[in-house]
Amino acid sequence: MMRELSLTRRGLGMADLPRPDLVTLAQGGDVQAIGALYDQHHQALFRYIWARVGERQTAEELTGDVFMRMLAALPRYRPSVVPFRAWLFRIAHNLLVDHYRKESGRVALSLQSAEGVSDEGNPAFLVEQKLTVERVHQALAVVDEPQRSVIALRFLSGLSLEETAAVLDKSESAVKALQHRGLATMRRALAHEKVPS
Amino acid sequence: MNDPFDSLQERLTHLEAGEPLETVCADLPEAEAGLLQMAGALRAVPAPERSLNTISTQRMELIRAAKSFKALNTLPKTDEVRRLGQPARAQSWWPLALAGGVAAMFACVLVVAALASAIWLWRSSPQPSVAQPHSPAATVVAQASPATVALAAPDPQHAILAEARGLVEIQSSDGAWAAADAGQTLAAGQKVRTGALSGVTLAFYDGSLARLGPNAEISVDSLDAQKTGSRVILLTQWSGDSKHDVAHSDDAASRYEVATPSGVGSAKGTSFRVSVTVLLVRFDVDEGVVAVTHLNVTVIVVAGQTTIVPPGEAPEEPVFHISGEGEVTAIGGIWRIGGQTFLTDSSTVVVGDPQVGDWVAVEGRILSDGTRFADRITLLHHSTENQFSFTGTVEVISDTQWTIAGRVVRVDEFTEIEKGIEEGVQVEVRGGIAKDGTWWASSIELTAANGFEFTGVVQSIISDTWTISGISVTVNVSTTIEAGIVVSDVVHVEGEILDDGTWLATSIQKTEENTFDFTGVVISMKPWIVDGVPISVTEQTTIDEGIDIGNRVRVMGQVLADGTWLAESITQLDEGKRHHVEFTAKVEHIDPWIVGGVTVSVTEQTKIDNGIKVGDLVTVKGNLLPDGTVVAKKIRLANPTQGCVETSVVVQTINADQIVLLNGQTIPLDGKAKVKGKVNVASVVIVLACADADGNITVVSITVVYQLDALPPPPAQDNGGQDKDKDKNKHQDCKEGPGRGEGHCNEDDDDDD
């Protein structure tokens, strides 16, 4: 039964497929469905968590924790309230909040504050070079927490505007504003990093 | 659209829909374009590759937790949530089984592995985290893949079973053996053993690892694996194969010792393997230096070398080892494998009855006269030449020939035909192609939509649920079960995977086979997981193009000695694939293509390897049309090479043009062979040489693994081994004490007692 439900239509990514039945099966205790949910979402979740914590090992552990929390919360999940992927990322987001509470004050700012820094004279820096993992983390460190969450969800994990809004329990307008400001801040930070003062 | 936030979102929507960045950015002010560039660059940032072991372990532990809570008819409360498994290093090195155990007790070999130049591989991978005091112990994972937990013991006085596959047992203080799982710990005084098709890794607190293969047994004699200061790990290996990766220690008093039941010895080393059989003990060194001592004779074994310790005899002069895999082109006292000849004798272990044309793995030694000697030859897969297989509908049945999917196949008394086949049903046909092009069927079987069969070791039998190599198999009154099967037996299981995922067995029989064959849905492709079963693949695995997650596939392959399921083929079974045909034979004609007597139609879509000529062995994959015509989708060279062999050898001279090896071989430095490391005179190098389809051998790479102080002396004459102790580079004089660790060695003294 699970097999038919997990068939992938060619040309569509796994995330594009509606899977309410798979979730329903998982809610009913179907272990294969639970395994399939892991398969579908672990990579994007890991990417989101890794973007936030910056440490692979911690990200690996927290990714596993998300699914255990998912297992615990599945009976309470209501598809009509929030899409499953957004719900799952909300678990991850809350887990990260808990993580940071435990590890409070751990975020390091490697770049100086980017506010007010101009990127004039360096217009094509992003085209010239690929972003490295380290530079992204450095740049993420200079944006504020809401912007950081939006940037990670939207551009590192590939969530839609609507999903991101659902994860963060914000309006879509608010997310639009946060992503704009976040991108601008990161761009300025990276531009400043490249041009010696 | 004046709002910059809305404007950006609209452009992002186009970008996310796949429009090129340049198009989306066109006509935008530089600042706005920069934001889109930033978004695009962020999307392209590579995240670290997740550890495959972690993925597999987390998934399985999640399923296990779900099963547990399902069994309790409840899902967990949040406070019951625990951390899933930590990453473990992937392994594919494990050697295949050696038969037999040790029948009699000999004096103990003492192998002391001191830690000169260990490479702590674990430091290059994510650091394992020690289980938190409040965390429950790592749990068992009942799947075909190894159960894996954090690769660190909880304290210096315990080793943890970091990875367990198949049947693993620990002996308790009362002498009874009990099944063990990953996550259990082992203290001094305890033993662990593995069954057939099984393996386990012992992880010590200092990061050292001891990996046991199938049918192995090892005891922990003394254990204080401190990370700093003096570290003590004393083991005894009673049977089977083990591989030891010893963590570096700066403390000269640190000891990593392995004892074996054949003679007495001591060794210093970092990464080495130990093989214990009734005939001999063998030490292979992969990194650093190992000293092996017995009967007051110590031989120093460096990376790339091997020594043998026959029971009651001194360690033999170290020789360089050789290993590889390839096609068998000659068999008998002299084997030819991968284009190179190997001497064999009664001590050579041959696994799987390989024949000419088959593909095997070989491990051996270079004897002092330069002869390659094979210690072990293991069948990897049989020759596919002139073999075919296809599925289709039975159209006509007669006593001598059947028509299936338009193709006529001959049958005779040797054809195994499953009962109940009638015209109109779907079958799978396998057989051979005769010289005249006739397709002779060796078997015709009904195609079960969800059928499975595999070979595994019985781990437990509880009521109607058997655990066989990690697979939970259900039996019922209809299941045919051979009498007398007990835990640790190797069995072949056939059955059907039900819609609810249950593996229902129709028969369970003892077997010496090692194959598996089942159909299921692709759950993951990195790593491969089909219907929850992790599958290993290699470059040799034939995988249909276009397979995607969710597709139904058929997976066929071999269960390796350590329990790994190694796929030989993964075939898509979805609609339109039912008349897939595959066969391997020699090309008789090109344009039109005739392969093995079969006319093969090619189209513009047919992918054909370059350079195929008449006489080459090729594999044809395609479809059978209703009239029996074979339309090829691919024509590939079946064996573009005869295999590759790695040989350890010492460099005698080197100049800008060439390297001359001590075995007389000259390798031109013309850029064709890749050189890894700095090659000097007296360097020990591993030479990888591959043979093409015609047997022409080419050196592919030269890798430096060790630097000797000086060139070794010329090969010893046949003087009964008296010259052994004259080589200071290879020998020590050891005074043997009455027990482990009570002897001592003097590396500067070349006089034997």
How many E-type strands of chain B? 55
What structural category characterises the helix and strand content of chain A?
mainly alpha
What is the radius of gyration of chain A computed over CA atoms, rounded to a whole number of angstroms?
A: 18 Å
Low-confidence segments of chain A, ≥5 residues, pLDDT <50?
1-20, 105-129
Q: Approximately how much beta-strand content do the residues of chain A carry?
A: under 5%
Spatial gap, N to C terminus of chain B: 95 Å
How is the biggest beta sheet of chain A arranged?
A: none
Which chains have the largest interface? Answer: A-B, 63 and 67 residues
What is the average of the pLDDT values of chain B? 76
Q: The CATH topology of the domain at 109-316 in chain B is what?
A: Jelly Rolls
Rg over CA atoms of chain B:
29 Å
Q: How many separate domains make up the residues of chain A? A: 2
Helix content of chain B: under 10%
Range of strand content of chain B? 35-45%
Q: Which range best describes the helical content of chain A: under 10%, 10-25%, 25-40%, 40-55%, 55-70% or over 70%?
A: 55-70%
CATH hierarchy: architecture of the largest domain in chain A:
Orthogonal Bundle
Number of helices of chain B: 4
Number of helical segments with 4 or more residues of chain A: 10
What's the multimeric state? heterodimer
Q: Which CATH class of the domain at 109-316 in chain B? A: Mainly Beta
Kindly describe this structure.
The complex is a heterodimer of chains A (197) and B (753). Chain A folds into two domains: 1-106, Rna Polymerase Sigma Factor, Chain: A; 107-197, Winged helix-like DNA-binding domain superfamily/Winged helix DNA-binding domain (Arc Repressor Mutant, subunit A). Chain A is mostly helical and 197 residues long. In chain A, helix 3 (31-53) packs across helix 5, helix 7 (133-140) packs across helix 10 (172-194) and helix 8 (145-156) packs across helix 10. Chain A is globular. Chain A is built from ten helices and no strands. Chain B is mostly beta strands and 753 residues long. Helices cover 7% and strands 44% of the residues of chain B. In chain B, the strands form four sheets. Chain B has a 27-stranded mixed β-sheet that branches. In chain B, a hairpin with a 2-residue loop joins strand 43 and strand 44. The termini of chain B are far apart.
